[in-house]
Amino acid sequence: MTSEHETLSRRAVLGAGVVAGAGSLIASKQAHASPSQRPVVREFPAPLSPRDITAELQAAMNNAAASGTILQLGAGEYFCSGLKCPSNLTVQGVRGHTRLILSGNKQLITAHNAHTIRLQDLTLDGAQSKLSEDTSGLVQFSQCKELEVISCAITGSSKSGLVLEQCSGSISGNQINTISEAAILSYNATGLSIEGNNIHDCGDGGILVYRWSDGHDGTIISNNRIANIAAKSGGTGQNGNGINVFRAGDITISNNKVSDCAFSAIRANAASNVQILGNSCQRSGEVALFVEFGFQGAIVSNNLIETAANGISITNFREGGRLAVCSNNVLRDITGTGPYAVDNPTFGVAIGVEADTSVTGNVIEDARVTGINLGWGPYMRNLIACQNTIRNAPIGIAVSFAAKEQSALISQNMLANCNVNIAGYAWDEQVSGDLALLADSLPETIVVSNNLVSSR
Questions:
Q1: pLDDT, tens only, 334-366
Q2: Preceding amide of 345 cis, omega within 30
Q3: Backbone Cα Rg of the chain
Q4: Hey, is 13 helix, strand or coil?
Q5: Contact 211, 247 (CB under 8 A)
């Protein structure tokens, strides 16, 4: 009779044999794999003493691209400038230890009309050297397909950090900081993702996605951390934004953490069909989330805004700005203190909208002036404000009575501790009593009903 101990021992031996056999099979397959199936790595060590190695490094890049090998740069410093990436190039370094340092006044790395380029685990350092007037950024790519810049550090640029023109691909997991202008600037993208980057301490902007004229862009901007964005070049909003989209349609901006921007955390200018979803925005100097000028179509939902001069503005009906949903956002501490003096509209508005927009399910606390502003002067059409909660605001909801064809539905909102709950306005002048308490003086096209008023 076989003992239980002997049975377990046999199972252990058999199991070990199976594992050993599997390991031998894997090793055998690897040993017999075709050399063409395994990536070949060509090493390029850093020079022992500081010197410009542009020519040697360019030759190594060209050879690696032509032979289909990976160019592996060792730890150390590589002084160079004007490197040109050919198609089918992969360059990788030792993360945090391979440093390419600008030694001239042109771009550090550039490419034009190339494809399948991958830069990974490199530190690209502009050393605050003054770039020439015809250079937009430290690293520039033009008309490049399947571009990947992954897990790199880009720093010390006297202009922008990474400039892309008509490019597709992925910019992900990079550390970009100490940039004089914008961290990432994209023009006319053709299928671009900007994801998971850590961006801070930039002079004029974080992530900028622009087009030369209105049109489809489709860039995805998600899961980035952006902080400390100044407006060194001045202006009233063209600089100083964490994320800025201009004329680019069909953009998705989601799950970003954006803080301490001189103007907006996220700004979409003439950007139709934009989606701004699930972002966290803290300490914005002007409007935290701004959808403005000639856009048609916007969804602004599930964002958290804390401390801003204004919270969310979906405006400029005069310029054709219309058609939006603003829902399920949380806003608090809308300070009313902005970066410049204005007369109208005033700062201190948590949510302001003008045309063909539904404002539902938002929670607002501590707005310096107004919780929700519906319309401005004559610019107001087809507005809904329903099932919102507004606490601690001098004016809960303001609705324009100055528009000739105004129409608005204000219903089922909860208003707590507001001096005036709901009132009609002509620009910044109150022209009605509290409509939450007595709605007899309403125009026929404005409905106020079933709102709950509380002193708490």
A1: 999 998 876 546 799 999 999 999 999 999 999
A2: yes
A3: 28
A4: helix
A5: yes
Whole-model pTM: value is 0.91
| Whether the Cβ atoms of residue 322 and residue 356 lie closer than 8 Å to each other | yes
The pair of three-digit structure tokens given for residue 216, joined into one six-digit string = 């489809």
Distance CA 103, CA 124 (A): 12
Which residues contact residue 173 at a Cβ distance below 8 angstroms, ignoring those fewer than 6 apart? 150, 151, 195, 196, 197
Annotate 47-98 with DSSP letters as a single string.
PSS--B-HHHHHHHHHHHHHHT-EEEE-SEEEEE--EEPPSSEEEE--TTTE
What is the rounded distance in angstroms from the CA atom of residue 55 to the CA atom of residue 62?
A: 11
Query: What DSSP designation does 289 have?
Result: E
Do the Cβ atoms of 277 and 303 come closer than 8 Å?
Answer: yes
Nearest to 332 by CA among 291, 360, 371: 371
Can you read off the two tokens belonging to residue 414? Answer: 């909860």
CB contact at 8 A, 41 and 74 = no
Q: 3-class DSSP state for residue 433?
A: coil
d(CA 399, CA 210): 34
Its sign, for the CA torsion 314, 272, 307, 385, is positive
Cα–Cα dist 137/120, whole Å: 19
pLDDT 10s digits, 72-85: 999 999 999 999 99
Residue 126 CA from chain centroid, whole number = 24
Residues whose CB is less than 8 angstroms from the CB of residue 274 and which lie 6 or more positions away in sequence, other chains included: 245, 249, 250, 251, 252, 253, 268, 291, 295, 297, 298, 299
DSSP β-ladder status, 414-426 and 429-430: antiparallel
The SS3 call for residue 319 is helix
